[in-house]
Amino acid sequence: MLYGYAARKTPSEGIHDPLSARIVVFENNGKKVLLVSSDLGSYGRDVFPVIQKSIMDKFRLKESELFLSTIHTHSSPILSLNKEKGNPNNIKYTEELNKSYWWLLMKHCKNLKPVHTGVGVGSSRLV
Could you tell me the CA-to-CA distances from 9 to 5, 42, 59, 70, 86 in Å, in that order? Predict the structure, then answer.
Protein backbone atom coordinates (compact mmCIF):
# COMPACT_ATOMS: atom_id res chain seq x y z
CA MET A 1 0.00 0.00 0.00
CA LEU A 2 1.34 3.41 -0.97
CA TYR A 3 1.87 6.30 1.42
CA GLY A 4 -0.65 9.13 1.06
CA TYR A 5 -3.27 7.16 -0.88
CA ALA A 6 -5.74 6.26 1.86
CA ALA A 7 -8.64 6.21 -0.65
CA ARG A 8 -6.93 3.52 -2.73
CA LYS A 9 -7.94 0.06 -1.58
CA THR A 10 -5.60 -1.98 -3.78
CA PRO A 11 -1.81 -2.37 -3.56
CA SER A 12 0.51 -0.57 -5.95
CA GLU A 13 1.42 -2.34 -9.17
CA GLY A 14 4.95 -2.33 -10.52
CA ILE A 15 7.88 -0.01 -9.98
CA HIS A 16 8.27 3.24 -11.90
CA ASP A 17 11.47 4.39 -10.18
CA PRO A 18 13.48 2.58 -7.49
CA LEU A 19 13.60 3.99 -3.97
CA SER A 20 16.92 4.66 -2.32
CA ALA A 21 18.57 5.88 0.86
CA ARG A 22 21.52 8.20 1.16
CA ILE A 23 23.81 7.68 4.15
CA VAL A 24 26.66 9.80 5.41
CA VAL A 25 28.73 8.96 8.48
CA PHE A 26 31.00 11.50 10.17
CA GLU A 27 33.45 10.60 12.92
CA ASN A 28 35.66 12.91 14.94
CA ASN A 29 37.68 11.81 17.97
CA GLY A 30 35.63 8.62 18.30
CA LYS A 31 32.23 10.34 18.14
CA LYS A 32 29.97 9.55 15.19
CA VAL A 33 27.08 11.34 13.53
CA LEU A 34 24.95 9.33 11.09
CA LEU A 35 22.71 11.01 8.52
CA VAL A 36 20.12 8.87 6.72
CA SER A 37 17.81 10.33 4.07
CA SER A 38 15.33 7.96 2.41
CA ASP A 39 12.88 8.07 -0.48
CA LEU A 40 9.92 7.50 1.84
CA GLY A 41 6.76 9.39 2.67
CA SER A 42 7.17 9.31 6.44
CA TYR A 43 8.37 6.99 9.16
CA GLY A 44 5.19 7.64 11.14
CA ARG A 45 4.79 7.91 14.90
CA ASP A 46 4.84 4.17 15.50
CA VAL A 47 7.73 3.19 13.22
CA PHE A 48 10.15 6.09 13.78
CA PRO A 49 10.99 5.31 17.44
CA VAL A 50 11.45 1.60 16.64
CA ILE A 51 13.91 2.23 13.79
CA GLN A 52 15.62 5.02 15.72
CA LYS A 53 16.12 2.84 18.82
CA SER A 54 17.19 -0.13 16.73
CA ILE A 55 19.96 1.86 15.03
CA MET A 56 20.98 3.67 18.22
CA ASP A 57 21.28 0.38 20.13
CA LYS A 58 23.13 -1.41 17.31
CA PHE A 59 25.68 1.39 16.88
CA ARG A 60 25.71 2.66 20.48
CA LEU A 61 24.57 6.15 19.53
CA LYS A 62 22.89 8.96 21.42
CA GLU A 63 19.74 10.50 20.02
CA SER A 64 21.71 13.57 18.90
CA GLU A 65 24.06 11.39 16.81
CA LEU A 66 21.42 10.00 14.44
CA PHE A 67 19.43 11.99 11.89
CA LEU A 68 16.65 10.09 10.07
CA SER A 69 14.78 11.96 7.36
CA THR A 70 12.46 11.28 4.46
CA ILE A 71 11.86 13.20 1.25
CA HIS A 72 8.07 12.91 1.71
CA THR A 73 7.10 11.13 -1.49
CA HIS A 74 3.68 9.64 -2.20
CA SER A 75 5.33 6.94 -4.28
CA SER A 76 6.67 4.84 -1.42
CA PRO A 77 5.17 2.13 0.76
CA ILE A 78 3.44 2.93 4.02
CA LEU A 79 5.78 1.93 6.82
CA SER A 80 4.09 -0.25 9.39
CA LEU A 81 5.00 -2.71 12.13
CA ASN A 82 1.41 -3.08 13.37
CA LYS A 83 0.59 -6.77 12.89
CA GLU A 84 -3.11 -6.19 13.68
CA LYS A 85 -3.86 -3.28 11.33
CA GLY A 86 -0.93 -3.10 8.91
CA ASN A 87 -0.74 -4.75 5.51
CA PRO A 88 1.58 -7.81 5.67
CA ASN A 89 3.53 -6.57 2.63
CA ASN A 90 4.13 -3.21 4.29
CA ILE A 91 5.18 -4.84 7.56
CA LYS A 92 7.68 -7.04 5.72
CA TYR A 93 9.00 -4.00 3.80
CA THR A 94 9.47 -2.05 7.05
CA GLU A 95 11.30 -4.93 8.74
CA GLU A 96 13.58 -5.35 5.71
CA LEU A 97 14.19 -1.59 5.58
CA ASN A 98 15.43 -1.65 9.17
CA LYS A 99 17.82 -4.54 8.38
CA SER A 100 19.03 -2.72 5.26
CA TYR A 101 19.85 0.34 7.35
CA TRP A 102 21.96 -1.83 9.69
CA TRP A 103 23.84 -3.38 6.79
CA LEU A 104 24.46 -0.06 5.02
CA LEU A 105 25.49 1.71 8.21
CA MET A 106 27.90 -1.09 9.17
CA LYS A 107 29.41 -0.91 5.69
CA HIS A 108 29.80 2.87 5.85
CA CYS A 109 31.15 2.88 9.43
CA LYS A 110 33.87 0.38 8.44
CA ASN A 111 34.94 2.35 5.35
CA LEU A 112 35.47 5.82 6.79
CA LYS A 113 37.94 8.05 4.97
CA PRO A 114 39.39 11.41 6.02
CA VAL A 115 37.63 14.47 4.61
CA HIS A 116 37.96 18.22 5.00
CA THR A 117 34.80 20.20 5.55
CA GLY A 118 34.11 23.87 5.39
CA VAL A 119 31.42 26.47 5.64
CA GLY A 120 30.66 29.33 3.32
CA VAL A 121 28.41 32.35 3.48
CA GLY A 122 27.13 34.31 0.54
CA SER A 123 24.30 36.39 -0.75
CA SER A 124 22.66 37.28 -3.99
CA ARG A 125 20.74 40.49 -4.50
CA LEU A 126 17.45 40.03 -6.31
CA VAL A 127 16.14 42.98 -8.28
Answer: 9, 19, 38, 24, 13
Task: Answer whether 0.85 is exceeded by the pTM.
Answer: no
DSSP string, the chain: -BTT-TT--S---S-SS---EEEEEEEETTEEEEEEEES-S--HHHHHHHHHHHHHHHHT--GGGEEEEE---SSSBPP---TTTS-HHHHHHHHHHHHHHHHHHHHHHHT----------------
pLDDT (tens digit per residue) in 26-54? 988 888 899 999 999 999 999 999 999 99
For residues 110 and 28, give the distance between their C-alpha atoms in angstroms, rounded to a whole number.
14
